[in-house]
Amino acid sequence: VARGDEGRSPRALTAELAAIVGTDHVLTDPDLVAGYVVDWTGRFRGHTPAVVRPKDAPEVAAVLAWCRQEGVALVPQGGNTGLVGGGVPLAGEVVLSLRRLDAVAVDQIAGQATAHAGVTIGALQRAASDGGWSYPVDLGSRDSATVGGTVATNAGGLRVLRYGPTRAQLLGVEAVLGTGATISHLGGLQKDNTGYDLAGLLCGSEGTLGIVTAARVRLVPPPRDVAVALLAFDGAADSVAGALALRRTLPALSAAELMLGDGMTLVCEVTGVAPPFAGSGRPLRSAAYVLVEAEADEDAAGALGDAVAQLPGVRDVAVATDPRRATELWRYREAHTQAINSLGAPHKLDVTLPAAQLAPFVDEVPAVVARAAPDATTWLFGHIADGNVHVNITGVAPGDLRVDDAVFRFVAELGGSISAEHGIGTAKRPWLHLNRSQGELDTFRRLKAALDPDGVLNPGVLLPPLR
Ligand code: FAD
Ligand code: MLT
Ligand code: ZN
């Protein structure tokens, strides 16, 4: 097992890494390193002897070769927006920042892009749009999260129900494996049944098998007409039922996002944005909301309006008639992450449930949390049409795992998954066995041993320690 920084002279380590990437690209100054050692939420904080910033795949391969030779562990890092403590050096690992690999090229004829690991999702979306196409993965962290990070975590986001997660966009990757081999499959053939799907394997492997240096992704035609509406319901059960029904009654559905009254109230307080439906006389706190988006060739608003009119339980509807209003409605949803974080580092438990268990889960999980930690507060929101609920818990110390344990066991009892889209990281490792059999975990370990034989890549991530 590779070690972190213990036992090696920091000066020797820095000099040897600088010989590969240049002195300017080995950061050791605490002020410069600070943003790389703590995660976005502030829950996971580590330390590192150095942040290394290679410029291309050969430099990545050279840094990895040095780490293997010296037995030094490393943590690959993109935008550092991951939410499961997988991208920060909790055991003193070297941080390998991929942000300098920031080239992107759109193939307009194929409707594909080759994006290097450090390209942000926002930059990829803009490049696709400039080329007349659209990159369909979208998430609130778009201006920081990178192509490498989203491939490594198989990021989901706001339009999975229409376009699938990152893995569904992936046609191939270039990567440096833990064996030292650089593999490259960026030709972009739409159909290519020539053996193991290495891109699919690396996608979601959270930096434990290889370092993704570039990806070939499919693009989609930009939607011609988009409509957005905010629906208010009396309670969570009605809102969940409504969102699930829209998947059938509104074929143009591209997003359906759940918010509850207390989250909406917090967002309005923190952002200063006016609450929705202020004149309705209905109390904000007891309501539940679904943000609905439809994409169509024409009259998306008409299709959305017809489907909503048939939906039982809808108490109020706010329709965006222009892009500015659509952005305002989306803001209620996207601001949840920031607003909850303003209360202190939350425990972020991103889970999926079978459709039939979603409403009972949303109803019961606050009580499950309260039994585990009476002082905790539970916040629920998420990509409800995917069955994906973000259970955020505040008022619990970062290392107090009682609520995590209670919620994950409840999820498993209901047949759900402890990670819908954020990954396992270091945060969920102890509970991976709730979703994966011994046979699967053994297979994971064999893959890890084959592709990272020296155990230098993210040794603290994903795989639970052997009991
Ligand atoms: P990092 O955080 O840097 O790393 C994440 C993991 O990938 C780590 O394990 C790291 O070691 C590994 N890694 C990073 N780069 C590479 C590489 N090149 N090769 C190999 N391994 C690598 N996630 C969603 O799925 N859906 C959402 O809707 C969503 N919304 C978000 C909104 C906000 C405001 C925030 C802060 C986060 C959100 N996230 C969401 C989580 C996060 O943005 C994603 O997990 C994203 O994929 C992380 O990308 P990153 O570049 O920041 O990766
Ligand atoms: C989201 O859907 O907003 C993201 O997954 C981030 C979060 O869970 O806070
Ligand atoms: Zn999400």
What does this protein structure show overall?
With 467 residues, this protein is of the alpha+beta class. Helices cover 34% and strands 20% of the residues. It contains 14 helices and 16 strands. It has helices at 10-21, 30-37, 57-70, 121-130, 147-153, 160-163, 198-202, 236-249, 261-271, 300-309, 323-341, 355-372, 402-413, 438-451, and strands spanning 26-27, 51-52, 74-77, 94-97, 104-107, 112-116, 170-177, 182-184, 210-218, 225-233, 253-260, 288-296, 314-320, 347-352, 377-382, 388-394. The strands form three sheets. It has a seven-stranded antiparallel sheet with strand order 13-10-12-11-15-16-14, with helices on both faces. The protein has a five-stranded antiparallel sheet with strand order 5-6-9-7-8. Helix 1 (10-21) runs antiparallel to helix 3 (57-70), helix 8 (236-249) packs antiparallel against helix 12 and helix 9 (261-271) crosses helix 11 (323-341). The radius of gyration is 22 Å and the shape is globular. It starts with 9 loop residues before the first helix and ends in a 16-residue tail after the last helix. 52% of the residues are buried. The structure holds flavin-adenine dinucleotide, D-malate (MLT) and zinc ion. Zinc ion (ZN) binds next to loops.
The count of β-strands is 16
Side by side, the strands of the main sheet go 13-10-12-11-15-16-14
Number of helices: 14
Catalogue the ligands.
flavin-adenine dinucleotide, D-malate, zinc ion
Q: Sheet bearing the most strands, described?
A: 7 strands, antiparallel
pLDDT < 50 runs, ≥5 residues: none
Shape: globular
Rg from Cα: 22 Å
Listing every helix as H and every strand as E from the N terminus to the C terminus, the arrangement reads HEHEHEEEEHHHEEHEEHEHEHEHEHEEHH
Distance between the termini: 16 Å
Mean pLDDT: 96
Pairing-aware structural class of the strands and helices? alpha+beta
Beta percentage is: 15-25%
* Oligomerization state: single chain
Helix content: 25-40%
